[in-house]
């Protein structure tokens, strides 16, 4: 009953905010949710979801007080087709394996409280607030067809048998993606991190800022990024910094407080009282 009600409640902020869930799972004391948000509305949507479900749970059970413990975690996930989205969605589907359910002889589809079974259903049978094509694409599946869905199940079941694939990629850290993705986010968050943000994030942001200052000063003095040699044009003493083949901005991410466009986010509240 409680999990069915949670899914009914989840559908409401998805419709209100335009979220299209790419993966989710419900466990005994927490849940995982992967949603891309085209607008800066993750914080508002999660606040509505958690407070509304808590109120409904307490009303139904005739209880009072907090249901969820602590703020949800919202790591940034790169969504440009490099495999990070696949990793975090597969983690949602494989998480019950770490809890020894389903049993070894059972198929993943037999776990009823995750999006895995819905991905294997025909498009017309899925909730309107759920989307499968981005995840299928990261698995190299070109079409959302019967054959494509069978291939998706085969690949996920194969990953289940590999102990390296049943760890938790989001247990530590604040992002999942390339180094370029990380550096872009550190630059975006310069001056915006407070005591409420993770110490690791604040420390890495400070280190990245220091590195950018050093590189900027080296360029101004005519040194290349490695600081190994400088080149001069026409012998005239004009500094020509070595070329910086640095990273390009990437799309598909958001900051933890929801103030940035087009994210792939994984929201993981710490506890749900059962």
Key structural traits:
disordered C terminus, Alpha-Beta Plaits, 3-stranded antiparallel beta sheet, alpha+beta, about 270 residues, 2 domains, two-stranded antiparallel sheet
Concise overview:
Helix content is 40%, strand content 10%. The chain is of the alpha+beta class.
Biggest beta sheet attributes: 3 strands, antiparallel
Query: Can you give the helix content as a percent range?
Result: 25-40%
Radius of gyration: 22 Å
SSE order, one letter for each helix or strand: HEEHEEHHHHEHHEEEE
CATH topology value of the largest domain: Alpha-Beta Plaits
End-to-end separation in angstroms reads 11 Å
Structural class: alpha+beta
Overall tally of domains:
2
Poorly predicted ranges: 229-274
Helix segment count?
8
CATH classification class of the largest domain: Alpha Beta
The CATH architecture of the largest domain can be named as 2-Layer Sandwich
- Largest beta sheet: strand ordering: 1-2-8
Q: What's the β-strand tally?
A: 9
How would you describe the shape? globular
Q: Report the portion of residues in β strands.
A: 5-15%
Q: Calculate the mean pLDDT score and round it.
A: 78
Task: Describe what you observe in this structure.
The protein is α+β, with helices and mostly antiparallel strands and 274 residues long. It folds into 2 domains: 2-178 and 256-272, Alpha-Beta Plaits (2-Layer Sandwich), CATH 3.30.70; 194-240, no CATH class. Helix content is 40%, strand content 10%. The protein contains 8 helices and 9 strands. It has helices spanning 2-17, 42-61, 84-98, 116-120, 133-138, 146-160, 179-188, 199-220; strands at 23-26, 31-36, 68-69, 76-77, 175-176, 231-233, 238-240, 264-267, 271-272. The strands form 4 sheets. The chain has a 3-stranded antiparallel beta sheet, with helices on one face. Strands 3-9 form a two-stranded antiparallel sheet. A hairpin with a 4-residue loop joins strand 1 and strand 2 (31-36). The longest helix has 22 residues, at 199-220. The protein is globular. The termini are close together. Residues 229-274 have low confidence and may be disordered.
